[in-house]
Amino acid sequence: MTETTTGAFRDPNDTPPLAQAVPLGLQHVLAMFASNVTPSIIVAGAAGLAFGGPEQVYLIQMAMLFAGIATLFQTVGVGPVGARLPIMQGTSFAFVGVLAGIAATQGLGVALTACIIGGAIHFVLGAFISKLRWLFPPLVTGLVILAIGLYLIPVAIKYAAGGAASFQMEAESFGSLKHWSVALTVVIVALVLKFFTKGTISNAAILIGLVAGYVLAFLLGMVSFGAVGKASWITGITPLPYGFEFSLGAVIAVTLVCIVSAIETVGDTEATTKAGAGRGASDREIAGATYADGLGTAIAGVFGGLPNTSFSQNVGIVGMTGIMSRHVVTIGALVLILCGLIPKIGAVIASMPLPVLGGGVIVMFGMVAAAGLNVLSEVRMNRRNMVIIAVSLAAGLGLNLVPTAVQYLPGVVKTLATSAVAPTALVAIVLNLALPEEI
Asked: What's the pTM value of the predicted model, to 2 decimals?
């Protein structure tokens, strides 16, 4: 189901026949599946959880479960919550850098508590999101997205090379040909399928690349299915699995990213209505989408899930198929919820060797940086804007790379200063407001 359907199912309330709706719903899941589970694997690793262990499996389950639940908030809606549009929600890469840093230094309890509070604040933003958009022009949002991508790329290279001893990999094998052959298989297969095929296969290129790398890793003896055999077929969910631990610095850092995520969701909502129905998004749709973002993030945090946001790649599917039906994406949400309730699926994903994941995230994280550059392409590159870009990136990435440069700052301020995203956003916003426009 990939052909553009002119004039058919252009209203969000239209319902395609089930034989057409189910494949389309699965297509939405395939396009976002790999990107949805990857952040949980990375944050779990940063927190020191056993690679492939039950705790990591649980976080992966929650990523799938609450991506589905957050998507239902968008497509079905509850009161003012939800855009009632075909918007697919998933675990956000934007939070990975901040949450990995918090989890590594203060623990998952602090990180997830920050997600709960940040999600609640994100929810409140829905009431006046339109009034805040002026603070986040393309210059600021593009810089933040670019900083996220640049921060994450070294993580991708580390994974592709085999990780490190902290991930239960042999340190002496780091960078070996075996690891790189697996990672490059993922990259090559994904690129070939993305650009030399069409439709569902092209949309699921990264997922298929991961499967190809996984198969090669299995043939090379890098895969253990011990955890899969021990995992149950069905399980419940645990409220506050790591407790409730408040840290002001962590909350501020996560909240700043929540604001950026809210602005991204506004853009995705506009893009969805333009791609599927040829119109702009209404104020109610934008507010509803923001409410759903925040509510999904807060509830996910309660049960061990990471923050959710709208997935831009699924906007492309709406534009490609021309089918605007929200019920199609609802089917995809139900598939994700089902996967999230089956621990064996999470265990299979958790058994993926780091080089396989590394090959996938080389592409994914690179695309995050490229998305930032794409947003910045809308900005006129005069002296003023180039200075803002230079100083913001230097502050954000520089302090993250050399955290000892601010080792004497108080804990809260140090957490913010070394998070990459927060200083980049803050410096960009302040300079954009303070520096005069050039004619």
From this structure: 0.74
